[in-house]
Fold this protein.
Amino acid sequence: MFTSFSTALSALSAHSTAIDVVGNNLANLNTPGFKTSVVSFHDLVTQSLGAGLGETQVGFGVGRPTTIRQFSQGAIQSSNGALDAAIQGDGFFIVQDNSGALLYTRGGNFQVDKAGNLLTSTGERIQGWTEINPATGAVITSGAIGDITVPIGTLKAPNRSTAFSFDLNLNATATTGEDFSTAIEVYDSLGSSHVLTVAFTKTGTANEWDYSITVPDADLTSAFTPVTGTLTFDETGTLTSPAVTDTMPQVDITGLANGAGDMSLTWNLWDGVTPRMTQYAQPSSVSANAQNGSPAAQLVRVGLADGGKILAQYSNGEQAVVGQVAMASVRNPESLIAMGNNNYQLSARSALPAIGLPGTGGRGSILGGAVEYSTVDIAKEFTNLIVLQRGYQANTRVVTAVDELSQETINLKR
């Protein structure tokens, strides 16, 4: 009978722990990326009474409960944060704390400090790659991960124009001497703009137009010599000369008055094997134009795009990838130890994490401009709370009953 004291006390301790877990779940109802924990009870060893054949078995109560964190997918909601990110699927963001330890998190509320480091909302540094391949402009992801540092307040160097193009139609019904002109802005090595004007004049020959390309003399130290040539079309209005295999017209600009380097621009008359110029019985007009230069530009903002790419947007409208967020997958995430601040640490039972790009190797995808909500189910937690409360109350009744029986037993000697 007197073992009932310890049995009931073990139940009180276990239910108290379980209520603590439920309380922690409810406290983190609105914590982004939080994963709910469940409590697993197990009984203690039993004793056999009588002949020892197991006819009568009495247990010693309930053992210390174990908690299991359930890494199920939380609801993903869009957010207004340019650096917010959510993981859809398995995996974790990798962060480094001030002591240099690597931790893992599902919380995606990121921010940038004054040095340009990408941080979690609690100050841990996000890990990934920032080395850029100068030839392709892509992030090199084959090396070791490190802190992600984004450019802050930097000025993007100008890009000198080397090619331009027009998608346009020249009127097939134009009379001899009728002209049409269009212009495009190109940029030198200092980022200064220069207006390139192309004038088309219908010749006396059918399906033939002359062109003349000029640059304002005020931009140069000496007068510019126009670049001239002839465009020829066939009876269907398709450009035939210059042909796709011919050398495209070149515009060489030397002696710029502002001290910039000389420029050499190629006029791309073909898009692959498709001519950009046509001659149909429609008014002469430009449908599109393009050139590959840009002026110097100020960094406007930095954002996180789908796939974990860090994008820098500049004042000239250009965007450039400046980093890539890394992800880690752990085969048994239930073994991770919660460290607070939405972070987890490997335990002795944890499998080694596999680090790589989102969407590869079983890792989930990263959604930019979104946040993963907590997986706490408030209705289920309240139900668990009621059940655990009743279990605690029932075991207090056992303690009271055993106390009364012990008092009756003591009174037998009187």
About this structure: The first strand starts at residue 37 and ends at 40. Residues 3-71+374-413 form one domain.
